[in-house]
Design a protein that fits this description.
The protein has about 260 residues and is mainly beta. The chain has six helices and 21 strands. It folds into two domains: about 80 residues, Cathepsin D, subunit A, domain 1; about 130 residues, Beta Barrel (Cathepsin D, subunit A, domain 1). A hairpin with a 2-residue loop joins strand 16 and strand 17. It starts with 8 loop residues before the first strand and ends with a strand.
Length: about 260
Amino acid sequence: MSGRNPRKFLLDTGGTLSLSMATAEEAGLRAVATGRGRAGGQTFTMYFGVLDSFRMGDIELRNLPVHWHDAVMPSALGDPQPSGVIGTTIFYHFLTTMDYANRALILRRKTSAKLRQFRVEAERAGAETLPLWLAADHFPCTLGSLNDYGPRVVSLDTGGAGGIGVVTTGEVAGRAGIRVDYDRPTSFNRIPVHPCVPDRASLGGAVARDIYSIAGPLLMDDRFRFDTIANFTHSFFKPYAITFDFADMNFHITSSPR
């Protein structure tokens, strides 16, 4: 996919590299296999192939596994559908920083020199350093807390939409002392959920207070094969720069100066 014709992609650590049907057709991709997928209450056909070239700025990646589908992708009200999703299977090739506050994606090569330089910069900036794990091959996890419940394992999904900071379950919310508003049912990706607002949600010393959250059957413990207490998503990260170090498996979160 040529950088001469740039496209809008979602950055989603809960995803892999995927394209819309229109983008795949324009790129001339040929499916070598198909399957059925289900996400966000949708069931759809998935097509699998190989992308010869994918450019992000001055970086070119070649011969990438990719899939495409006809499902509706998350987008803001009134915005056109994105061309696709850039996910963890791309990010784990780099020292990846998502600087939310400054709206920047920074991809560094995972060389010893780049890692040393970043660690000096992170320490100088007062970054919180937490462990990083990968579940089911591309879902990053670390340690987090809801109110005083934790630290326990949580997942990290930058692709969440709708102004949500944390996703949990009604059972975990009860353990954490979070009131769930069962009188106001809503939906997330067509799945029934209920709003809740934890007093505190935290990843180490990075804390969000009174952040809008939801409780419902959205955690992926069955797929992960271990328990999590929450998924931390888009709105939680907005004041921060977050970095995924897939060399030494550390997650760094820093208050980002604007």
